[in-house]
Design brief:
It is a single chain. The chain is α+β, with helices and mostly antiparallel strands. It folds into 2 domains: 1-140, Orthogonal Bundle (434 Repressor (Amino-terminal Domain)), CATH 1.10.260; 145-221, Immunoglobulin-like (Sandwich), CATH 2.60.40. It has helices at residues 15-26, 30-37, 41-49, 58-72, 76-106, 113-140, and strands spanning 145-149, 154-156, 160-167, 172-175, 178-180, 187-193, 197-206, 212-221. A hairpin with a 2-residue loop joins strand 4 (172-175) and strand 5 (178-180). It is elongated.
Length: 225
């Protein structure tokens, strides 16, 4: 089995960063992903650039995010939560900016230095509050868990199989109750013994204060005749 190709993986903070880094980690282009998932390439670019105002209705975006999550083998619900949180935050900020612009046009007194000073302070407070909320969501959200090999429902005649995958560097990874050591990029390898018949591997990843991300891998070991 092949070893990992080592490359730097930056920590992400927004869904745009997450989607872009997942694609880069697979070493594929947006055009390839678009053809593979039957999604217009321009909308994949919009998702990776955080251009929510250009995207079509939520029904399309939700379906696309589920397709993308399945392709990368990550948790779709986490991507959907991040998308709606960021979209709501951007909408509220955009709405607040529009309201302030209308007030400024109607009443020139709002252009006085005192008002501008309070507006600036309020913007800082709002930004800090939004950042705090976003960081809290990131803390409690379960880490991503990507099983690279073997595929689920894998069949083999070997007595063992090597599990290769990746999660967040700070996550605690368990395979069938055994703690697995991660490398500096959150990657892991574990050789698991198999019994003849169907083997169920229970894999979980959890940050210190987050919910747990679960994956159940089925591997069939066929008897050697």
């Amino acid at each position: 089995m092949s070893n990992f190709e080592r490359k730097e993986l930056k920590r992400t903070h927004t869904i745009a960063d997450k989607l872009k880094n997942l694609r880069i980690s697979k070493e594929i282009t947006t055009d390839f992903l678009a053809k593979k998932l039957n999604i217009p390439a321009k909308y994949i670019v919009c998702l990776e650039n955080g251009q929510h105002d250009i995207l079509p209705g939520d029904i399309y975006v939700r379906a696309w995010l589920k397709k993308i999550a399945n392709f990368y083998e990550v948790d779709a619900s986490g991507l959907l939560v991040d998308y709606h949180l960021e979209k709501n935050i951007n909408h509220k900020i955009s709405s607040a900016v529009k309201i302030e612009k209308k007030k400024s046009l109607k009443e020139s007194k709002f252009l006085r230095p005192k008002f501008l000073r309070w507006l600036f302070i309020g913007a800082i407070v709002l930004t800090l509050f939004i950042y705090l909320v976003y960081e809290i969501v990131n803390i409690i959200a379960p880490p991503f868990l990507n099983i690279i090999q073997p595929s689920n429902n894998f069949k083999t005649k070997e007595a063992s199989v090597e599990i290769i995958g990746q999660t967040k560097v700070e996550a605690q990874l368990m395979i069938n109750g055994e703690l697995i050591v991660l490398d500096q990029e959150g990657k892991f390898k574990k050789n698991v013994n198999l019994t003849v018949g169907l083997n169920t591997l229970k894999i979980s990843a959890k940050n210190k204060h987050s919910r747990t991300q679960y994956a159940e891998w089925l591997i069939l070991r066929e008897s050697v005749e």
